[in-house]
Amino acid sequence: MTTGPNRIFDDFARLMTDAAGAAQGMRREMETMFQAQAEKFLASMDLVQREEFEAMKEAALKANATAEALSARVNDLEARIAKLEGK
Questions:
Q1: Is there a single domain that holds both residue 75 and residue 35?
Q2: DSSP per position, 62-78
Q3: In which domain of life is the source organism classified (predicted)?
């Protein structure tokens, strides 16, 4: 058994180790609580997920391309009709 200054230093080192462990545990608990609150907040904002947004963006681009192709086709048909009526 140690006595004197060595025991005081040992006790102090043990106390600091325990305090560091407790602080790290509190940090983990706070991070978990913060993450849960952040997820709850984001869920309440009615946001879409990135995957859903990208899928809708792709669908909109395809619909736009189809509309442009159909518009060009209508213009071509109208021009043909105008030529036939002009004969």
A1: no
A2: HHHHHHHHHHHHHHHHH
A3: Bacteria
* 3-class SS of residue 71: helix
**In this structure, are 26 and 39 located in the same domain?**
yes
58 with 20, same domain: the answer is no
State the virtual CA torsion across 40, 46, 52, 57 in degrees, nearest 10: -140
Per the structure, the complete domain to which residue 42 belongs is given by 1-46
CB-count burial class (<10 Å; 0-12, 13-18, 19+) for 1? exposed
Cα–Cα dist 37/30, whole Å: 10
Q: pTM value?
A: 0.47
pLDDT tens track for 37-86: 998 988 888 888 899 999 999 999 999 999 999 999 999 999 999 999 88
Return the sign of the alpha-carbon dihedral for residues 39, 43, 44, 50: positive
Give me the number of domains the chain comprises: 2
